Amino acid sequence: MIAYSIILFAVAILILAFGISIYMGNTKLIHDYHQTNVKESQRQEYGRSFAKGIFAICATLIISGIIALFSKESQLFKVSLIVLLAGLIVSITVIVKVQKKYNGGLF
User: Fold this and answer.
1) Residue of 55, 53, 70, 54 lying closest to 5 (CA atoms)
2) Residue 82 near residue 64, CB atoms below 8 Å
3) Do 91 and 53 touch, CB atoms closer than 8 A?
4) What is the mean pLDDT of residues 83-95?
5) CA 79 – CA 90 distance, rounded (Å)
6) Residues 6 or more apart from 99 whose CB is under 8 A from it?
7) What is the pLDDT of residue 107?
8) Which of 27-31, 69-73, 82-86, 98-102 is predicted with the least confidence, judged by mean pLDDT?
9) Angle at the Cα of 12 (from 8 to 15), degrees rounded to 5?
10) Would you state the pLDDT for residue 35?
11) How far is CA 40 from the centre of its chain?
12) Residue 94 vs residue 106, higher pLDDT
């Protein structure tokens, strides 16, 4: 379980770096077709809202990694996977809502 936790932590750090960059206004990290209908005046707000979904993914990975790190039984590992799945669903839902609000749809 240590290797699994290390991988989750490493990916969380990478995603956190992307999230911080997007939050600071670097919306170029988001594909162009995801922001074709976003008005230039709303780019900063769009980036901040989008980054919140990215931060939620990061938090999900960290929480799941912590649970897996301390799990010696398969039951706790299952809890870690459930937390990971639930957190990713919530995070993707946040990103989809941001896309619909600012871009008018996913693409």
Assistant:
1) 70
2) no
3) yes
4) 96
5) 16
6) 34, 105, 106
7) 66
8) 69-73
9) 140
10) 81
11) 24
12) 94
DSSP string, the chain: -HHHHHHHHHHHHHHHHHHHHHHTT-GGGS-GGGSTT--GGGHHHHHHHHHHHHHHHHHHHHHHHHHHHT--SHHHHHHHHHHHHHHHHHHHHHHHHHHHHHHSS--
**What is the reported pTM?**
0.88
Which residue is listed with tokens 């162009």?
Answer: 32
67-93: average pLDDT: 90
- Joined together, the tokens standing for residue 96 give 């989809």
- 5-14 tens-digit pLDDT: 999 999 999 9
For tokens 């074709």, the residue is 36
Q: Which residue has the tokens 């240590």?
A: 2
